[in-house]
Write a structure and sequence with these properties.
This protein is an alpha+beta fold. The protein is built from 11 helices and 17 strands. The strands form 3 sheets. The chain has a 9-stranded antiparallel sheet with strand order 10-17-8-9-16-14-15-12-11. The protein is elongated and about 85 Å long.
């Protein structure tokens, strides 16, 4: 088998995840009539299959191991305040200001998200104080209360209590935001008593020290040098998160997708499976779902590599506890991505295996979803009707021969309101039967 290395761009994966947060593969509009895998790779170096004959293609078949990202790099800079985890999937970077109303709202959102994904997100906080709108002569001057809050945070940080002060300032935002500068300062000096074991005298000394005052004074300049032009500003690793996603549902869903795709590397394979099937035998797959069982007759004579890969994945539990992430009544039901994003693959991608003798002329056909001729992976779909427009573009590798009523029943889980569509029907087990 020819091997070509394909790299996955995490930036591209992130971009797709944020697009998918508002347009899920399981909630595509009715005009979408192709069962695709969302593209997350640059598929270069392949020869496209063309001039289809009535036989399985005899061009060089390609199966390609997908390059992995490897260990997550560190994005922390000197002076950053970091909530570290042992093995992060992503780094979430926030440029913000304690005296900013939108920043305070985003604080509540990010706190909730960090609780949702314990152990997955490294969180970095960086200062970007609001400008002093009353100082028109020097527009780069910072809001005085923003600087006071930074000084308080840095003074607490000197005693390893940054995050306690971070929470104190954000949780009490509505209390102090209307204070003048002196009242705000006095309020901080009384509130530090609520932080257990913090040395209040040392805190007050540090808060007004030259070093800390200088950190606050240069924080805006440092943020601008980093290329940040607005606050609050969220980044994931080395990519900016679009401002349209600065609300809980979109951000939580999108980050969850990126985390799932990153964690998928833990179970992906480093190479294509060896050919182990005997094409003189008949193979069947008994699929157990939450709502019953159905059986697929696998067409190893037409699509030997696809059937071999499917059997390999099934016997190694790849499909266990994976849900049907897309169900289009009257069209297809699609499954096979452990992340549920429609972007996951088993760590390798391979070519089409098509024959003009086998077309999408009926319901119950089982075929691989893809994003191009050389991008078959693990996701497959089952047809609910004849779909001739798919002929030649997707590998048909089986047919449901028993339990089609269970497959039909999957359609009952589809909601008309695409934005609220959620499918909780899982494959629990696939048993391979040889005859």
């Amino acid at each position: 088998m020819k091997k070509i290395s394909i790299g996955i761009s995490l930036t591209l994966v992130i971009a797709f995840a944020f697009i998918l947060s508002s347009c899920q593969p399981n909630a595509l509009g009715k005009e979408d009539t192709t069962p695709t895998v969302a593209e997350s790779t640059e598929a270069s170096g392949f020869v496209e299959l063309s001039n289809l004959s009535g036989e399985t293609q005899d061009q060089d078949f390609t199966c390609t191991a997908v390059a992995k990202q490897g260990d997550h790099p560190s994005y922390a800079l000197e002076g950053d305040h970091v909530l570290s985890v042992e093995d992060p999937a992503i780094t979430l970077i926030l440029y913000s200001d304690f005296a900013c109303d939108m920043c305070n709202s985003l604080y509540q959102i990010t706190q909730a998200i960090l609780l949702n994904y314990p152990g997955d997100i490294e969180f970095i906080y960086r200062y970007f104080p609001l400008p002093d709108m009353e100082n028109q002569e020097e527009l780069t001057a910072a809001n005085p209360k923003s600087l006071i809050a930074i000084q308080a945070a840095e003074a607490a940080s000197n005693q390893n209590y940054f995050w306690e002060m971070y929470d104190l300032l954000n949780d009490n935002y509505d209390t102090w935001i209307e204070y003048d500068e002196q009242t705000f300062t006095d309020w901080i000096l009384t509130q530090v008593a609520s932080i257990d074991e913090l040395d209040e005298a040392q805190f007050e000394t540090d808060m007004f020290s030259e070093d800390i005052v200088n950190i606050a004074a240069t924080s805006m300049e440092n943020a601008i040098k980093a290329g940040v032009t607005y606050i609050p500003f969220l980044g994931i690793d080395d990519s900016a998160i679009p401002g349209d996603y600065y609300e809980y549902n979109s951000l939580n869903q999108s980050l969850g997708q990126v985390i799932a795709l990153t964690r998928l590397e833990d179970i992906q394979y480093d190479e294509c499976p060896e050919m182990t099937i005997d094409t003189n035998k008949d193979y069947y797959a008994k699929v157990t779902t939450d709502i019953g069982e159905f059986t697929i007759h696998l067409f190893d004579d037409v699509a030997p590599f696809t059937v071999n890969s499917f059997i390999f994945l099934a016997e190694n539990n790849w499909y266990d506890d994976v849900y049907f992430h897309r169900i289009e009544p009257g069209f297809v039901a699609q499954v096979g991505d452990p992340t549920g994003t429609g972007m996951g693959n088993p760590g390798y991608l391979y070519s089409l295996e098509v024959s003009d003798d086998l077309t999408f002329n009926r319901a119950g056909l089982v075929a691989m979803a893809n994003s191009g001729p050389n991008s078959n992976g693990s996701q497959f779909f089952i047809t609910y009707d004849a779909t001739p427009h798919l002929d030649g573009s997707y590998t048909i590798f089986g047919e449901v021969v028993d339990g089609m009523d269970v497959v039909e029943a999957l359609q009952d889980t589809a909601l008309e309101d695409a934005e609220n569509t959620y499918y909780a029907i899982f494959i629990r087990d696939i048993e391979i039967i040889e005859k």
